[in-house]
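Please fill in the sequence for the structure shown.

STRUCTURE ENCODING:
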């Protein structure tokens, strides 16, 4: 589907429109969140046909709300994922709960979604809304690069944020819904097992992978009364703001909490962790989402797989 372009009556009007779009400041999100999502929101609006300033303002408003909510849910700033039908439906239900404008916003998003995406399943409509695929896991090499980068940031606050996001993401599978709300008191060490307690959605205690236990304990020991990532912010988009503040050296992978979570899930699949226990630790209601990671699971030798499938111990 060809990308939409703005219809400008004349150059003077076009420049005025551009100035108005660039000066837009939402009241529905905090300043730090707006800084992190502003380029995505404005770029998306600029790709749409111009249908009057009133429509443009409404589009800016609803795209800001959707993008802020999506980042808080751990969805990357990718139009194919943020403007996917499934994301929009979940946003309408969870992100706009109680809003009197929910039906209007939903209709607006369903109108602009097909205009701003190429691969999202808008046309033809699937019989059921497509399930969002999980983010690709990091390779071992990429993870080592990210760990090294986390120690090189210029300020202590950024180094701490990066270390904590890495440890809680790759070590406990926590994405933007939980990683920025872990305090020292939520980290427990009992019987040689380090666990991290998290709240809604899906309150639970997650055992930390042995490789990351020391890092999590050290972060907890130095957190004081702040969160492990540093600071006291309770913004639902705190994770996105922290990630956006991290500089990425050329050729290095970008830190992504969804990818960290996938890396943690893949570790357990390769380790043959039982699915009921893995789903509970991940805060999943089922295991369907894990099917997207099956292609990354290390294959077994045929002889070993036969033994496994036969149901006999080696």
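FILLED IN BY: designer on duty
SEQUENCE:
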């Amino acid at each position: 589907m060809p990308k939409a372009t703005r219809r400008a009556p004349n150059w003077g009007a076009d420049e005025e429109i551009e100035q108005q779009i660039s000066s837009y400041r939402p009241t529905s999100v905090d300043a730090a969140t707006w800084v992190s999502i502003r380029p995505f929101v404005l770029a998306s609006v600029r790709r749409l046909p111009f249908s009057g300033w009133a429509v443009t303002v409404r589009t800016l408003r609803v795209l800001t709300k959707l993008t802020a909510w999506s980042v808080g849910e751990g969805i990357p700033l990718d139009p194919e994922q943020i403007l996917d039908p499934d994301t929009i439906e979940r946003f309408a239900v969870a992100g706009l709960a109680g809003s009197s404008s929910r039906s209007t916003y939903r209709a607006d998003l369903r109108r602009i979604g097909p205009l701003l995406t190429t691969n999202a399943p808008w046309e033809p409509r699937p019989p059921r809304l497509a399930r969002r695929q999980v983010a690709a896991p990091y390779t071992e090499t990429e993870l080592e690069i990210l760990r090294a980068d986390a120690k090189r940031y210029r300020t202590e606050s950024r180094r701490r944020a990066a270390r904590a996001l890495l440890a809680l993401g790759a070590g406990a599978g926590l994405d933007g819904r939980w990683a920025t709300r872990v305090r020292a008191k939520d980290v427990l060490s009992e019987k040689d097992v380090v666990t991290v307690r998290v709240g809604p959605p899906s309150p639970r205690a997650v055992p930390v992978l042995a490789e990351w236990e020391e890092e999590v304990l050290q972060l907890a020991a130095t957190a004081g009364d702040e969160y492990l990532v540093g600071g006291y912010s309770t913004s639902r988009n705190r994770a996105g703001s922290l990630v956006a503040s991290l500089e990425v050296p050329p050729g290095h992978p970008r830190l992504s909490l969804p990818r960290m979570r996938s890396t943690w899930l893949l570790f357990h699949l390769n380790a043959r962790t039982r699915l009921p226990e893995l789903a509970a630790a991940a805060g999943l209601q089922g295991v369907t989402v894990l099917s997207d990671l099956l292609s990354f699971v290390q294959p077994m030798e045929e002889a070993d797989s036969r033994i496994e499938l036969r149901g006999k111990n080696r």
